[in-house]
């Protein structure tokens, strides 16, 4: 908890105890980390050839989603925040591309692909809502 000073129009200072949101409280970040953890378990099962041709790009794209969410969270201005949120969304779409290829080429089972796809879909919806909320929050200030 942080002690926040709030200035009122009458010139008085009112202090209130307020919990500030942290990165680990952000639902989209937690979901991105969960997807990353599951993707890593899948990646570890690949032989060196698959890791080299598709696996490295797959895991890099997956990890990039959470990294971009984290970097955007740390920015002050809403345009900076959403720049990184858009990058996260682009990486999420890249993950879908690599996951589809891995399933198509028999490197990931249909079941594994379906489970990851559902989580990716959920994160995509929540990420879009977060982007919209970040933009709206700016307009209401």
Short description:
The chain is mainly alpha-helical and 141 residues long.
Chart the SSEs and their pairings.
Blueprint: E1 2-7, E2 13-18, H1 27-43, H2 48-73, H3 78-104, H4 110-140
Helix pairs in contact: 1-2, 1-4, 2-3, 3-4
What does this structure look like?
With 141 residues, the chain is mainly alpha-helical. It has one domain (23-140): de novo design (two linked rop proteins). The chain contains four helices and two strands; from the N terminus they run E-E-H-H-H-H. It has helices spanning 27-43, 48-73, 78-104, 110-140, and strands at 2-7, 13-18. Strand 1 and strand 2 (13-18) form a beta hairpin. It is elongated, with a radius of gyration of 19 Å.
